[in-house]
């Protein structure tokens, strides 16, 4: 399915999102149990005094420890290595842009905390703020193709990712398990689309590196 949207409207939504972020409490706590067909996913890395570990920290720790636990879930913050901004789930956006992931925040709030369940190519990312799984929107077209949005209630192919160490263990990459593409922070986009996350890259560069 293809969606055409007014970018002027999206810019207006960006302005209102700041207000919503201040006054809105998290919509729901993230579930730590997988959908039907998967085993329980215990939360091992919860937020500590409002400061979760980075995605890089939990992936590196799992690698160092050689953990035999099939699935590990952690509350994390995710930062673009390219622009140094935290990834936010844009819960102030509407329609087909609702809960778009963007690397645009300087300060961590509810929209910048995610529960990541590490399970090789079946890893998932869930927004703590609205309790929804992150999907790669493979039905979108053009510059919105494979946009990441925190909008799914049920885990399916579009909600599965590989999260791997890279950059000599100084960063991680996120790859859609369905289309095989690396997630990029679109730093060439402007306005309300700036630093949108999309699973669209074949080659790793700075925009595909996260902490």
UniProtKB/TrEMBL annotation:
<dbReference type="InterPro" id="IPR008999">
    <property type="entry name" value="Actin-crosslinking"/>
</dbReference>
<protein>
    <submittedName>
        <fullName>Uncharacterized protein</fullName>
    </submittedName>
</protein>
<feature type="signal peptide">
    <location>
        <begin position="1"/>
        <end position="29"/>
    </location>
</feature>
<keyword id="KW-0732">Signal</keyword>
């Amino acid at each position: 399915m293809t969606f055409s949207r007014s970018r002027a409207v999206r810019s207006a939504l960006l302005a209102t999102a700041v207000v919503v972020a201040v006054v809105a409490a998290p919509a729901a706590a993230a579930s730590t149990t997988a959908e039907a067909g998967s085993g329980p996913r215990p939360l091992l890395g919860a937020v500590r005094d409002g400061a979760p570990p980075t995605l890089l920290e939990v992936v590196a720790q799992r690698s160092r420890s050689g953990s035999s636990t099939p699935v590990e879930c952690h509350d994390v913050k995710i930062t673009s290595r390219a622009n140094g901004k935290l990834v936010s789930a844009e819960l102030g956006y509407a329609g087909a842009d609702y809960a778009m992931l963007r690397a645009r925040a300087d300060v961590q709030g509810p929209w910048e905390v995610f529960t990541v369940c590490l399970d090789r190519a079946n890893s998932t990312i869930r927004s703590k703020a609205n309790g929804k799984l992150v999907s790669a929107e493979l039905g979108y077209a053009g510059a919105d193709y494979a946009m990441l949005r925190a909008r799914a209630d049920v885990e399916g192919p579009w909600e599965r990712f590989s999260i791997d160490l890279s950059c000599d263990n100084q960063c991680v990459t996120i790859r859609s398990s369905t289309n095989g593409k690396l997630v990029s922070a679109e730093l060439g986009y402007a306005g309300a689309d700036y630093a949108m996350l999309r699973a669209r890259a074949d080659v790793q560069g700075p925009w595909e590196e996260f902490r």
